[in-house]
Amino acid sequence: MGGVIVTNPPKADAKDVEALAAFGVATVSEAMGRTGLLGPSIRPVQQGVRVAGTAVTVLSWPGDNLMIHAAVEQCGEGDILVVTTTSPCTDGLFGELFATALQKRGVRGVVLNTGIRDTQELRDMGFAAWSRAVSSQGTVKATGGSVNVPIAIDGQVVRPGDVIVADDDGVVVVPREKARETAERSEAREAKEAATRAAFLEGQLGLDRYGLRDTLKRLGVEYRSYEEYTGAGS
User: Fold this and answer.
1) Tens of pLDDT along 149-179?
2) What's the whole-number average pLDDT of the chain?
3) Is 61 within 8 Å of 143 (Cβ atoms)?
4) Which residue, among 184, 166, 164, has the nearest Cα to 174 in the 3D structure?
5) CB 62 within 8 Å of CB 115
6) Which residues of 186-202 are buried (b: 16+ CB within 10 A; e: fewer)?
7) Residue 225 has what pLDDT?
8) CA–CA distance from 83 to each of 80, 197, 203, 211, 221 (Å)?
9) What is the dihedral of CA 110, 116, 117, 118, to 10 degrees?
């Protein structure tokens, strides 16, 4: 198997990446019309961490981490490494030594559509990671692949230079061309949610704030007392 290592791909503007870092994965996905999520099987190995950065993508052979070694050279300040394989794989392709090399280069985290190991060490060193599985199974370095090419995870395309936002809820990808627009929409959504939160704290119900009583009526949902529903009074 051959492959290609693409150098210096275009990236989202750093200011837009930092703007997106202020928002959670759910907010960013909603701001894009509920798109961009990598799927619920990609889970964090830590809790309480949110990162945003530009994607460096890796396409590897199952059970083989050669191309991750090649990708480290292409990573820099503010990047997030995103790895998938040509067919399903849960082997531990990534661990503490990779994280040490990437952290030295200013990489903010890793997203793996495969397995990860050394999770305690990763938490101890503060290197953020999301993966499909945790596995101690080792790998080889024997098969070619590609770096900085478009890849797909759970049907979602991730291109080099796209923005990755990841937190306890999962991972979302923002196309680099939409980074600024998505940050602006995320900010507007946060403001709207803040107003709704204040209203709920004052006792307002979602049924009234969102005009859902008419929706219930239109759908034929009826209010009945317990006695009416059970016939207990007859």
Assistant:
1) 999 999 999 999 999 999 999 999 999 999 9
2) 97
3) yes
4) 164
5) no
6) bbebeeeeeeeeeeeee
7) 94
8) 10, 37, 46, 44, 47
9) 10
Residue % of the chain over a pLDDT of 90:
97
Residue 231, judged by CB atoms within 10 A of its CB (0-12, 13-18, 19+), counts as exposed
Nearest to 23 by CA among 195, 227, 166, 232: 166
> Residues 178-219: pLDDT tens digits?
999 999 999 999 999 999 999 999 999 999 999 999 999 999
Question: What is the number of helices (H) and of strands (E) in the chain?
Answer: 9, 11
Specify the amino acid at residue 64: D
Q: Which residue has the tokens 């799927």?
A: 39
All residues at 6 or more sequence positions from 167 whose CB lies less than 8 Å from its CB, including other chains: 24, 25, 44, 49, 50, 51
Q: Which two tokens stand for residue 20?
A: 């997106």
Closest by alpha carbon to 93, among 139, 127, 43? 139
The Cβ of residue 40 has, within 10 Å, a number of other Cβ atoms equal to 9
Going by C-alpha positions, the residue among 198, 170, 160, 179 that lies closest to residue 24 is 170
For the cut 90, the answer to whether the pLDDT of residue 234 exceeds it is no
Query: 1: which 2 tokens?
Result: 């198997």
Average pLDDT estimate for 133-147? 98
Nearest CA among 173, 170, 167 for reference residue 36: 173
Q: With contact defined as beta carbons under 8 Å apart, do 129 and 108 qualify? A: no
User: At 151, which amino acid appears?
Assistant: I
